[in-house]
Every structure is written in C-alpha cells, then in structure tokens.
Amino acid sequence: MTSALTPAHSDHELTEIPADGLCSASPQPNVKVLGIDNGRLYFYSETPGGTRDYLPEGACAIYGAILDASVAKYGKAGERKGNTWDADRDHLSLLIQSPTLGLQYRLLIPAHASQVSYRTLLGHLVTLDLRATAVKLEAKPGNTHGVTIFNVYLDPVGLPQNQVKGNWIGPSTADLQIAVDACRRSLGLPPQFPEWVTPASPIPSQPSTCSDY
Q1: Which of 19, 34, 44, 129 shows its CA 20 to 30 Å from the CA of 89?
Q2: What is the band of 116 on the pLDDT scale with cuts at 50, 70, 90?
Q3: Res 205: pLDDT
C-alpha cells in the first residue's frame, strides 16, 4: 500500500534493484513523540524526568499521513498542587508519517477523562478515508485554561475550504473505542476493540461548538 505522502516506485527506480533481489536492511524510522498542553505541542523528553521541549510559538500543527490509530496506556502516577493521577492512563495514539522519509511522529493525547482534545480530533478523523489523504492536525487553546481543541485540514497550509467538519464524539470510553476502531478500519487495520464491531459500526457523535470550552 502506498501512503498519501509516498508515490509508488517508478519503472526507473525498480531497475536499480539488484538483479538477484538481495537488498540491504530497510532503514528504521525515527519516531519522535509529541504531547499537547493548552494548545501547544511539545516533544517528550528522551530521558526520564526530563523537561518538555515545546515547539516554537506558532508551530502548533503536524502535517502528514496517519499510519496507525490506537488507545495506548501511558504516563506515570503523580501529584501536583493537591491533585493526584494514576499511572498508565488511556491516551489516543496516532502514528504520523511526515513528508520527510524516515521521520515519523507519535502524537499522544490524554483520553482518560472525556477530554475535549481527543473528542474533537476523532470527530473529524472518522469522516475521512485516512488511506487516501494526508492531513494537517492543528492544535489550539480552548476558552478554558488547559483545554486543547483540534482543527483538521486536507492541505498543509490550512485553507478554510479544506477544513474538515465533523462533530465531536461522545464522552464515554465506548465512544472512544468505537471511534478509534473506525479510524483503524479506514486505515485497513484490524479492530483494537472487536467487542464493538457490528455490521453498521455507527460512530457516536455529540454536536458542540468550541465556544463551549
């Protein structure tokens, strides 16, 4: 399968393959892990306990072809200002192929407490054929501090006419799992949560506006 960013091999490229078909090992992709914070993106530290490496102001989006979508357990238990949280919390995990060969991003979005961020993003993604198009995922702060919402575009610039219009998915764990499996079905991947598979596999949605948050 050819991704939305990678053209198929030309006849000229195929003639460069050794006649015996024996080739060197495929290069391993460099996967950089990204998180979100109040509308900003940051790289996870490569060392335990390291600081977040925030992208420069204005660099709030990723453009690429989504290769995988899943719910992943991530994070350590902690406490801050009287608030505590458990380890291994649910996150929406998206693996994204950048336009640069060999460079991929894994975007981790908290999804354990009905967060607006994953609900807005999945609400857009479930409307697309993810194998056929690259997307721009643009994070922006909501009206409530700490809230991140997502806009999705079908071009790297983010032209208004190419903005994807989808409803937020519902707030339950089942809503999250069904939407993730809808994305996986669009990518040609097996379901992560087969217990929800039905002939119709409806996508639960909840119309909302960004002004609510």
Answers
A1: 129
A2: very high
A3: 47
